[in-house]
Amino acid sequence: MELRLDGKRALVTGASSGFGQHFARTLAMAGADVALAARRIDRLETEAASITQDTGQRAIPVALDVADVSSIETCVSATVDALGGIDLLVNNAGIVVTKPSLKQTEADWDQVMDVNLKGAFFVAQACAQHMADGSGGAIVNIASLLGERVSKTEISYCVSKAGLAHMTKALAYEWAKHGIRVNAISPGYVKTDLNRAFLEGEMGQTMMRQIPIRRFGEPEDLDGALLYLLSDLAAWTTGHILTVDGGHSLATP
Question: Which range, of 84-93, 156-165, 193-202, averages the lowest pLDDT?
Answer without folding.
Answer: 193-202
